[in-house]
Amino acid sequence: MTTLKYRYWQDEDMWLGYLEDYPDYMTQGETLEELQDNLRDIYHELTSGAIPAVRHVGELLVA
C-alpha cells in the first residue's frame, strides 16, 4: 500500500484537489470521500501509462 500526499479545498459545494506529486492533474468531488476516490483513480491512470506525457515534480539540489 502506498501513501500519497494531496492538497484539497472546498469551493462552494465542491471539493477540489490534486496529488502533490502530480499538481497539474486536478480533480473534484461533491464530498471529500468522492474527491479521495477520484484522486485514487487519477493516480492509477497516471501510473499505468493511460495518460501520455505525464508531468512530474522533482527536487533539485543546488550548491
Integer-rounded radius of gyration: 13 Å
Low-confidence segments, given as residue ranges, are none
Q: What is the H-and-E element order?
A: EEEH
Q: What's the average pLDDT?
A: 95
Structural class, judged by helices and strands?
alpha+beta
In spatial order, strands of the major sheet run 1-2-3
Number of helices: 1
Biggest beta sheet attributes: 3 strands, antiparallel
Protein name: Type II toxin-antitoxin system HicB family antitoxin
What does this structure look like?
By secondary structure, this protein is an alpha+beta fold. It has one domain. Helix content is 27%, strand content 25%. It has one helix and three strands. The protein has a three-stranded antiparallel β-sheet with strand order 1-2-3, with helices on one face. Strand 1 (6-11) and strand 2 (14-19) form a beta hairpin. The longest helix is centred in the middle third of the chain and has 17 residues, at 32-48. It is globular. The model has no long low-confidence stretch (mean pLDDT 95). This is Type II toxin-antitoxin system HicB family antitoxin. It comes from Candidatus Thiodictyon syntrophicum.
Features:
alpha+beta, three-stranded antiparallel sheet, 1 helix, Type II toxin-antitoxin system HicB family antitoxin, TTHA1013/TTHA0281-like
Q: Would you spell out the secondary-structure blueprint of this structure?
A:
Blueprint (H helix, E strand, L loop, with lengths): L5 E6 L2 E6 L6 E4 L2 H17 L15
Antiparallel strand pairs: 1-2, 2-3
InterPro entries: TTHA1013/TTHA0281-like
Protein name: Type II toxin-antitoxin system HicB family antitoxin
